[in-house]
Amino acid sequence: MLPELPPLPALTRAEGEVVDAYLAAVDLLGRINPARAEHTYGGLRAAQALVSRATELRDALALMHRRGETELHTATLTRALRILDGERRAARVTVPVAAMEEDAPPSAS
């Protein structure tokens, strides 16, 4: 049985859409990451899907702006991202440390 997650902070509908679209884009970027991917086809499909997710993210931010929501409440959005496992999901976008050490140029000692 999974542990009960804390409740999400109160978000406007547009803020919720920003968080959802952002995490979807992050997931796709993680699938595209050449330091972690093993096949081109999966990366190709993720890259194709990224276009629509980026559009959803843009539209959610544009809606917030039109409504006068000109500032992002970073503390609240950060809590939401953490509850939705955003740190783990975003980590897939980075270059793994082991790969960096293997490919590092020899030190000039």
Structural notes for this entry:
With 109 residues, the chain is mainly α. It has helices at 13-32, 40-66, 74-83, 86-91, 97-103. It has 5 helices and no strands.
Based on secondary structure, the structural category is: mainly alpha
Poorly predicted regions: none
User: How much of the residues is beta strand, in percent?
Assistant: under 5%
- Please summarize the sheet with the most strands: none
C-alpha Rg (nearest Å): 17 Å
- The SSE string, one letter per element, is HHHHH
Question: Which outline best applies?
Answer: globular
- How far the N terminus sits from the C terminus, by CA atoms, comes to 53 Å
How many strand units? 0
User: Can you count the helices?
Assistant: 5
Mean pLDDT across all amino acids: 90
Helix content: 55-70%
Blueprint (SSEs and pairs):
Blueprint (H helix, E strand, L loop, with lengths): L12 H20 L7 H27 L7 H10 L2 H6 L5 H7 L6
Keywords:
109 residues; single chain; 5 helices; mainly alpha; 64% helix
Brief description of this entry?
Helices cover 64% and strands 0% of the residues. The protein has 109 residues and is mainly alpha-helical.
